[in-house]
Design goal:
single chain, 396 residues, alpha+beta
Length: 396
Amino acid sequence: MLKKVLITDRGEIALRIIRACRELEIETVAVFSEADRDALPALAATEAVCIGPAAISKSYLNIPRIISAAELTGVDAIHPGYGFLAANARFAEICEMCGFTFIGPSSAALKTIEDKAGVRKALLEAGIPLLPEGWEQIGQQMLAEKHPQELRQIDVQIIGDSYGKALHLGERRCFGPGYRQNLLAEAPAFALPAKLRAQMGKAALKAVKAVKYANIGTVKFLLDNRGRFYYLALDPRLQVEHPVTEMVTGLDLVKEQIRLAAGEPLGYAQEEIALRGWAMECRINAENPAADFRPSPGQIQIYHVPGGPGVRVDSAVYQGYSVPPYYDSLIGKLIVWGAGREEAVTRMKRALEEFVIKGIHTTIPYHLQVLEDELCRCEERKPARNLVSGTILKPA
């Protein structure tokens, strides 16, 4: 097992990784910019190193400074979180060349994924259904024109070890308004028949084996209303929405990442993965929904998180903390679990009503409006409509 890990990301995911490492009895090093000097990751880690001013090009994207911090603190591994450098093949390669374990896929796998033409060829040979002719964006546009208002993105969580074993951990669906379709997520995906779920899971495993991918990742598909799906992308990192998968599988994906990077094999089989209940996640952003989701940095004057059964909050802010204007506006994630979708929706609404953040605007009012909508509060036994497109869906 690794002994000391440096975390290159910031905010709630950095704190999430610190907590996982602490449970694995691994020491941590947090790097931070001058704007994040008072952030919780810098206070919670075993050690903390300032790597530059607020600008990300001079701090969180400054590879020489990050590597210098890793060498000075004597770490044996580097975790990139899910932003900044998480899918950067060159950064992974530099980590490997400097003798640090990169907690994620290998640089070779990342380079393969960056070669879009090569990936397409490998997937065609593996029999994976692809988007219509052209690259991903063009193909996606062509498919959208062919099936207007009928497409859904389904993300399949995969996990693989360095010995060739790979599993899928069910799927997620993200939704939201227009270009902000990642504000809410749920697992499993609503109204996805069991047969289709199994087909997409098998296709995701074929995809990762075709490109020799290991560690945590997400295979993204586009699904039309006739049950036909097409490969969209392989996201080679931990995703913001990973907690909903954790809630329905009982697995700690961050710990799994670390164990796999340390060379441990997967200790369970596909048939042992069972999805239990329903989970939902709301991204709590420092944004004003009434002003086209304009960023809302500033000091948090009052901060009270919800609690109760099946409620989880992943956040790195606190009362008195000043949200800086330089980075992504995500300040936390509210995740709930319920025995079924209706209970999850009801519990999420209750938790959002308990969540108090004063001093800045947040996306909480938007989430409450969505959950009040009859389209989202449908019972599992009744037909429902797709939250984004309005398409009638039949429950599984």
